[in-house]
Amino acid sequence: MKTKMTALAVTTALVAPAAIAQELTIVSWGGAYSKSQQLAYHEPYTAKTGINIINDDSSAEAVAKIRAMNEAGNVTWDVVDVVASDAMRLCDEGLAEELDHDAVLAAAPDGTSASDDFGDLIVSDCFVPQIVYSTTFGYRTDMVGDKAPTTVCDVFDLETYPGKRSLQKRPIDNMEWALYCDGVDKDAIYDTLSTPEGVDRALAKLDTIKDQVVWWTAGAETPQLLADGEVVMGSTFNGRLFSAIAEQNQPIGMLWDMQSFDLDGWIIPAGLSPERKQAALDYLFFATDTQRLADQAKYISYGPARTSSAPLVGKHAELGIDMAPHMPTDPANAGNVHIYDYEWWADNRDDLDAKFQAWLSK
Q: What percent of the chain is predicted at pLDDT more than 70?
């Protein structure tokens, strides 16, 4: 059953915060990304309502932790930032609240409904899209010799580019890149991964670099490994690389080839008290309107999920540089992209996680 709350009710709650909880625990990914949320969403919301925001950087473990909280009957999180496929899993398991997007979210400034403004990015009844981002590769410009890497398959070329790589400690993206670099056409990747032979083929390709991989679980790790010269190249979220390059002036280059497009957004865990659920909905109404999503792009190079936000994306708040060319969706960066299949991973993630972890332990 979908949550039915009118935009008027949410707005009323925003101007009468005493009626709802005075503290919210909001879960995200940490680093430059959480900083962008703090500046664009949390601080203005606290200034408007007086409600305190507690940041928790546990989104990488969101599914497991929400499952455990639900089983224990003690849900301590109020709003959680998750990738789209995890939102779909949690929704399917009844662990995230279903939402009537047009009832609980602000319309666009021209009156366009929230569902039309977000469009196809609403991939689950429980999911409020926030940003379009990509997982891609950075490399040390002073460690790759005279020829900078140009394709994702250079990650598997230890002869031309010797040295350690960093990869996220999960099957997503790694399996797709491995099959692509083993000769599988992009449009056949998920059909191939749907077979035991395809899974074995992907892991066999990853075997060719396994002993040169540093595995990461937090998005801040690869930029730090690159800055320290501990890896020659590594995957991470494009906004983390932007921060390292543009804000920190690190000797790092970007490899956009086969960047993996993904969505990130909010869910409200099931099992909250009415008071806490009301507070979570108030926050979502505020933090996902057209201007707020555009504001986040002042601090990090992720594309806002609302169509109405895109024209409002301007310059970096501190550097004064145009942000549009640094977005993963910019035509200059999107010549060869990998379109991440949210539904396939929602259906297959648990099984592939088990196989991937077993492979890692060998």
A: 94
Is 64 within 8 Å of 39 (Cβ atoms)?
no
For 147-175, how does the pLDDT look when each residue is reduced to its tens digit (9 = 90+)? Answer: 999 999 999 999 999 999 999 999 999 99
For 355, counting Cβ atoms within 10 Å of its Cβ (0-12 exposed, 13-18 middle, 19+ buried), the class is middle
Encoded tokens for 172: 């997503």
Nearest to 345 by CA among 62, 85, 59: 85
User: What pLDDT score does 13 carry?
Assistant: 42
CA quadruple 42, 47, 48, 54: dihedral positive or negative?
positive
Would the CA dihedral through 87, 92, 93, 96 be positive or negative?
positive
Cα–Cα dist 239/276, whole Å: 31
Give me the helix-helix angle, 174-181 and 342-360, nearest 10°: 90
pLDDT at site 6 = 42
Q: What is the pTM of this model?
A: 0.77
Amino acid at 267: I
Q: 43-79: per-residue pLDDT in tens?
A: 999 999 999 999 999 999 999 999 999 999 999 999 9
Whole-Å CA distances, 96 to 131, 268, 346: 19, 6, 14
38 residue type, one letter: Q
Is the confidence at residue 12, as pLDDT, over 50? no
Q: In angstroms, rounded to a whole number, what is the distance separating the alpha carbons of residues 223 and 322?
A: 22
Closest CA to 283 of 75, 2, 21: 21
At residue 134, φ and ψ (nearest 5 deg) are -140, 150
Report the length, in residues, of the chain: 362
